[in-house]
Specification:
The chain is an alpha+beta fold and 154 residues long. The chain contains two helices and five strands, in the order E-E-E-H-H-E-E. It has helices at 48-60, 65-89, and strands spanning 2-9, 12-20, 29-44, 93-104, 107-121.
């Protein structure tokens, strides 16, 4: 659910956690600030070798690993760019994240976008008082359960 990245701040590196979800909210968290839309965009092409090999693979049908790799890498790039923009705005989460793809001539375009927000964890549900027995325990006045005795002889 969360994505951790190493961010350099002057001479120091920090691990920064960013929640990125496709839902409009996050169970267990409350949105305290909306910082606006963030996005990442890339336009990619395959190199000559990949295109040549993919052209032959397309004759036989099925998955074309060269293009799958380009699309997978593109999604990772746009997620990183969107994450960086949200982090620059001071967000610790992105909600309603979506991908959009298209083509421009022989190139593929991948866009990732969402809403940068600041979230905080909700207070944990209060635990029962320490003096109250657990729900499965017998009352204090009841005798302890004993193994089942055989029926009386007749």
């Amino acid at each position: 659910m969360g994505r951790i990245a190493r961010v350099r701040d002057g001479c120091f590196w920090h691990d920064v956690l960013m929640f990125i979800v496709t839902t409009n909210d996050m169970p267990g968290y409350r949105i305290t600030q909306v910082l606006g839309e963030v996005m990442g965009l890339t336009v990619r092409s395959t190199d000559f070798g990949q295109s040549f090999t993919a052209g032959f693979r397309s004759l036989g049908g099925g998955e074309i690993p060269e293009y799958t790799q380009v699309m997978y890498e593109s999604r990772q790039v746009v997620m990183g760019r969107m994450w960086a923009e949200a982090q620059q705005r001071g967000a610790n989460a992105i909600v309603a994240m979506r991908f959009d793809t298209g083509s421009i001539g022989n190139f593929s375009e991948v866009c990732g976008y969402g809403t940068a927000v600041v979230v905080e964890a909700l207070a944990a549900a209060s635990a029962p008082p320490a003096s109250a027995p657990p729900a499965s325990a017998p009352p204090a006045s009841a005798p302890p359960a004993s193994p089942q005795a055989p029926p009386p002889a007749v």
